[in-house]
Amino acid sequence: MKTDKQIYTLLGADPDFLRVLTDGIAVRGAYLFEALDVKGLERRTDGVLIPRAVDEDIWVMEFQAQADPLIYHRLLLEMALVGERHPQRVVRGFVLFAEATLDPCTEPWHGLMTRDPQPPLRRAYLPEVLKRLAREAPDHPLLGVFLPYLEADLERLRRQAPTVYRQLQASALPEASRRHCVAVFQSWLMARFKSLSLEEILKMLGELTPLEETRAYKELVAKGVTIGRQEGRQEGRQEGRQQGRRREARRLVLLLLQRRIGVVPAAQQRCIAALSVEQLESLGAALLDFQDRSELDAWLAEH
User: Fold this and answer.
1) Who's near 79: CB < 8 A, 6+ residues apart?
2) Start and end of every DUF4351 domain (predicted)?
3) How far is 264 from 293, CA to CA, in rounded Å?
4) Considering the chain, what is the average pLDDT of its residues?
């Protein structure tokens, strides 16, 4: 299950999430958390933490879910190149490993991290971070967000997901932080239940009623029934089901977009209204990774 983008989303969503997942890195005020195309590298640095306060350190962050014996060397190179952009700032590096066994313990950096109280590089192991969080703050919303990531048994996950989803929606987090939590939770849930559509996932969570119970479906089927002939009734039912499915998919996509990026302008709504059911379902899966309205614009332009 791919997790990188979701981890970076959480790191950038809330200062408390940042502190927890980095095992203590704190920012006093506002900060940017962005991906940078670093000059001199043929890749993008996915997580660069830039505090607004110029006297605070910049952090180049990596989430490592696969074995890479050169991760520390690569991180040091990224730090140096980011430092060229910000020559007046201190630049440090951090790696969050999905498992402790993925840490290559490269010297001299590994030894330096254990001896120096403020080393240029820091690292943490996600299972240890979450276990500590469960002991110290068992009601923390991040534990709910990580449920699809941690729970191996799909049947237990299916039973627990609706309760956790409701708790995330009702949490006392700032609106933007709560929206990011819900989006990451839904994204990971879809990755675990690959055979289910977005509509089926949201039904599982109690977000939608079955299509056959929706007002749009009943109205459209009723129109088909009035045709009078058996063939007409059958065609009407089929047309009602198809149109009802499209309306419900469009309503669902607009609902999720509003929660993810805010109010959807009328021009974009018109574009969405013209999409087929298949395109709407594709957009419904893609929007869980949207950060702002420009990504919706790019998706609509492409499709």
Assistant:
1) 60, 91, 92, 93, 120
2) 242-300
3) 8
4) 82
Q: Going by DSSP bridges, is the β-strand pair 31-37/91-97 parallel, antiparallel, or unpaired? A: unpaired
Strand 91-97 to 58-64 pairing: parallel
Provide the β-strand partners of residue 97.
64, 125
Q: State both tokens at 184.
A: 């990451």
Residue 142: DSSP 8-state: H
Would the CA dihedral through 170, 171, 176, 180 be positive or negative? negative
pTM, rounded to two decimals: 0.71
Tens of pLDDT, residue by residue over 7-48, are: 998 999 899 999 999 999 999 888 888 877 766 555 667 789
Q: How far apart are CA 160 and CA 206, in angstroms?
A: 12
State residue 65's pLDDT score. Answer: 92
- Per residue in 75-116, pLDDT (tens digit) is 998 999 899 889 999 999 999 999 999 999 999 888 888 777
Q: Are 37 and 59 in contact (CB under 8 A)?
A: no
| Calculated CA dihedral for residues 95, 101, 102, 104, nearest 10 degrees | 80
Q: At what angle do helices 230-261 and 293-302 cross, to 10 degrees?
A: 140
Mode of pairing for the β-strands spanning 121-125 and 58-64: unpaired
Of residues 16, 53, 47, 10, the one with CA closest to residue 31: 53
